[in-house]
Write a structure and sequence with these properties.
- By secondary structure, the chain is an all-alpha fold.
- It is built from four helices and no strands.
- Helix 1 packs across helix 2 and helix 2 packs across helix 3.
- The radius of gyration is 25 Å and the shape is elongated.
- The relative contact order is 0.07.
Length: about 100
């Protein structure tokens, strides 16, 4: 006899898991718990796939950081206002005496 239920996550279930996994601090913990400590099922497979995706994105980000130079050097940029001049410029924009 075939089972009457499927082992798939619905669209809203997957969307809810993505939102959960993207929450700061709580999402990381939930992702690790779902990927390694819950019994076999669709949520565990989804969490492991999401974890693999995150690791791949981090690896690509690290590679691109090294390829593009790895740091931003702001000494070549000239900012138009000094800190003392910012308040005066703000007053001139709003025509405040």
């Amino acid at each position: 006899m075939k089972p009457t239920t499927s082992n798939n996550i619905s669209f809203l279930g997957g969307l809810g898991l993505i939102v959960l996994f993207c929450l700061p601090y709580i999402g990381d913990l939930a992702l690790i718990i779902c990927a390694f400590f819950i019994p076999e099922g669709s949520v565990k497979k989804f969490a492991r796939g999401f974890l693999i995706f995150c690791v791949v994105v981090i690896i690509i980000d690290v590679i691109l950081t090294f390829v593009t130079g790895g740091s931003f050097n702001f000494e070549y940029y000239k900012f138009p206002l000094l800190q003392e001049e910012e308040l005066e410029a703000f007053k001139n924009i709003l025509n405040i005496a």
